Amino acid sequence: MIRVLLADDETMVRAGVRAILGSGGETEVVAEAGDGREAVELARAHRPDVALLDIRMPRLDGLTAAEEIVRTVPGTAVAMLTTFSEGAYVTRALGGGATGFLLKSGDPYELIAGVRAVAAGAAFLSPKVARFVIDEGLGGGRLTREAQARARVSVLSPREREVLGLVGAGLSNPEIAARLRLVEGTVKAYVSAVLDRLGVRNRVQAAIVAYEAGLVEP
């Protein structure tokens, strides 16, 4: 079972999200928080696989809580679940280490898939958020970003570029291992090397480079 911490200041929203996740049969909400400070405390106490956080919450907003959880609970993946998809929120969330950004207006199956993906170590962005990331690239002109991305990717070996492309496509380490017929430990080493050589913090940022370098079809 995927153990989830759910944080939202609206009780009805938490109930709805809990019901959706429960319908998938592979996710268990182990703790619920009504504000960001409580979310951080519960993440430290329960060490869930995924912390699913709203952005606008009292005491401590979700973005700050996400950064704190990433910093202090390294075994917990963080995903934002919000009605707000403004660029500043997306930029800060991904820059702060979140590997998922989901919209409450999305399909319930999208929520289940997103939690499953980030729990498996992959990245997951709602389609609208992914479109923003591709179009805006978190800053800079499109042609400049493409040239910079290709230059960064050029230092990778052919196998590392192949792994990066699959990371960009949202595959987890086990899925990449199956696709490339490698053992999972080898894939993990490749992913770690790719992140290090690209100078990025997580798989979401690596996926952005993969998109901009043309390794993944938008």
Could you name the key traits of this structure?
Rossmann fold, globular, Arc Repressor Mutant, subunit A, alpha/beta, six-stranded parallel β-sheet, 2 domains, 6 strands, about 220 residues
Describe the structure.
The chain has helices at 11-23, 36-46, 62-72, 87-95, 108-119, 127-136, 142-153, 158-168, 173-180, 184-198, 203-212; strands at residues 2-7, 27-33, 50-53, 77-82, 100-103, 124-125. By secondary structure, it is an alpha/beta fold. It folds into two domains: 2-135, 3-Layer(aba) Sandwich (Rossmann fold); 140-213, Winged helix-like DNA-binding domain superfamily/Winged helix DNA-binding domain (Arc Repressor Mutant, subunit A). Helix 1 links the parallel strand 1 and strand 2 (27-33). Helix 8 (158-168) crosses helix 10 (184-198), helix 8 (158-168) packs across helix 11 (203-212) and helix 9 crosses helix 10. The model has no long low-confidence stretch (mean pLDDT 87). One of its GO terms (biological process) is regulation of DNA-templated transcription. This is DNA-binding NarL/FixJ family response regulator. It comes from Streptomyces violarus.
Coarse morphology: globular
Strand arrangement, major sheet = 2-1-3-4-5-6
* Total helical segments: 11
Structural class: alpha/beta
The CATH class label of the largest domain is Alpha Beta
Any idea what the radius of gyration is?
17 Å
Let me know the CATH homologous superfamily of the largest domain: Response regulator
Helix content: 55-70%
The tally of domains stands at 2
Protein name: DNA-binding NarL/FixJ family response regulator
GO molecular function, one term: DNA binding
Keywords: DNA-binding, Phosphoprotein, Transcription, Transcription regulation
Organism: Streptomyces violarus
